[in-house]
Fold this protein.
Amino acid sequence: MFVLVAVLSFVFSFIFALGGVGSAIALVPILNWIGFPLNQVKPTCLFINTLSMVGATISNIKEKRVNFKIGLPIIITSMVIAPLGAYISTKVPTKAVLTVFLMFLVFAGSMLIFYRGSKRQTFRTDAPYLILSLIGGFAGFISGLLGVGGGTLISPLMVFMGYNPKTVAAITALVVPFSSFTGFISYWIMGHVNPALLVVAGITAYLGGYLGTYFMQKKLKPSTVKRFLGIIVFLLAIKLFFKLIK
């Protein structure tokens, strides 16, 4: 079983990293389907999110791409609310959580395939703390509830508000490790972490993500790969839908 986990974690982390996307969105349903309890899978994937985004964040900080004035309110509320999402997730039926996950897959797939970002020439640089805090809280709640990074929610909302997509990408990479880690700690405290699953999936997903990012930067256009990933996400959504209606 753990050999299968290692292979799946590596392969999907490699594939999703080609499009600059975290693999948790695929690994949560897949690891659940092969037999691991959902509440063990979610902290594992939150841990993977934390590992995968830390490297990107360090690079962005070194290159001075991060606007902390804009990012800080999102970080704070996502960190505070993510444990709430994790706690609620353990108190509601698995089918209800998977139904929310199905809706998230459809949304994420649509973003990957159809969303093209903003074509405007000038971008806002202000920091409306209330709105940014609400975005962070919403993303943090979904992150803790489903075991995925909130970047898929943060990015389109911030671009829609008028921020530069490059600034948004750096802020998203900064926020995800914080919200993912606090969600992971919450599951750990509640006793839902499977150490063996965590180690096997964490190490292989990190290696797959690292290699995928390298190949993406050297050889591939992220926009093309993201459309391919969107199709994968939709296929996962279809499979999950039929599982739920059985």
Remarks:
- The chain has one domain: 2-244.
